[in-house]
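Dear colleague,

Thank you for sharing your sequence with our group. We've completed the structure prediction you requested, and as agreed, I am returning the results in plain text so they can be pasted directly into your records. Please verify that the sequence below matches your submission; if there's any discrepancy, let me know and we will rerun it promptly.
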Amino acid sequence: MGAPSAVILKVETPDYGRVVVEASDGNRYHASLLPLAGVYCFPKTRQDWERVAPDSHGLALVWTTRFEAHVDQVMGLADRVEPTLRSA
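Please find the predicted structure tokens below.
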């Protein structure tokens, strides 16, 4: 059996099409989700892009347009991964 999926703790939207996700595995993932833009409910405007939150289990990002991206998709599309600096 593999390790359980990381849980999304925090999300930021620095630019249209990009997210920065802080995950329970101790990393911050910077990813462009533009490869998924062909999905009909992909947010069309910057304003729509900013209306995102983790789902109730922390396993996906959900936009008000009903577009969803699973944590594994965000991790797979990440172009930069950095450790989070958490104090105990």
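Summary note from our side: The CA atoms of residues 24 and 61 lie 14 Å apart.

Kind regards,
the structure core
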